[in-house]
Design a protein that fits this description.
- The chain is an alpha/beta fold.
- It has one domain: Purple Acid Phosphatase, chain A, domain 2 (4-Layer Sandwich), CATH 3.60.21.
- 21% of the residues lie in helices and 24% in strands.
- The strands form 3 sheets. Strands 1-8-9-10-11-13-12 form a 7-stranded mixed β-sheet, with helices on one face. The chain has a 6-stranded mixed β-sheet with strand order 7-6-5-2-14-15, with no helix packed on it. It has a two-stranded antiparallel sheet with strand order 3-4.
Amino acid sequence: MSDSISIEAEKNNCIKLLQITDTHLFVDDDGSLLGVNTTESFAAVVEAILEKPIDFSAILATGDISQDHTQESYQKFIQGIKPLKKTCFWLPGNHDYRRNMASALPAPQIKCVPHILAGDSWQIILLDSQVEGVPHGHLKPEQLTLLDRLLSEYPEKHALVLMHHHPVFVGSAWLDQHALKENHNFWQVVAKHKHAVKAVVCGHVHQNMDKIVDGIRVIATPSTCVQFKPESDDFALDLLSPGWREFRLFDDGSIETEVKRLANGQFQPDFYAGGY
């Protein structure tokens, strides 16, 4: 399909990916979310990645790139990701403003496409779950059709499906009211292609999650800024530092993944904040 982009595998035909999510950048360098300077925390994550000998094929940025919707905040992300050199595929989150995301392009390193052919054995499908003006997610019929079509078109390939919103509850009432609505429609499509879909990956929840739902692995990744406390029904922040995720996708459909974080104690939020 015309909106597909191919990426090469690393050694042994392994696809290595970085997931960076929920950067929540502001036009102002001193812009803070719940007491965390998001420009500085994003830069610290990029620097930490550069300090490690990581080989990877691409970067996945799963939404909430901006907090203030400005075109300049997207340009800040584009400049900030440059040192990582590899192509970065981004999709919108509930805090993003599609028009300004689009106006920040073209940028050589950033791609906004729904489909990646990764090495010989994998495809990555990027879905837009944003509902403009509200925090919860929803997949429009055309997104579900896209998912079904791509999974049908490449039945021999293992699939990684990305979106911003979490398609299953994480066990926090305040967060789960902002999950993917009518998620049964999504899972019905996935069930048709259960042999191919190896994992569903999201952002949005600002915490690590890795569990099996109806035989499908569902993964969420920490934010590069503020962390939300897991399994808290009321709004609560976590002590854990900002982070990112690394993936290794193998020819047999298996996935190895690991969350990495900045050193303990870095970028602590305002624990007296009453909401988000």
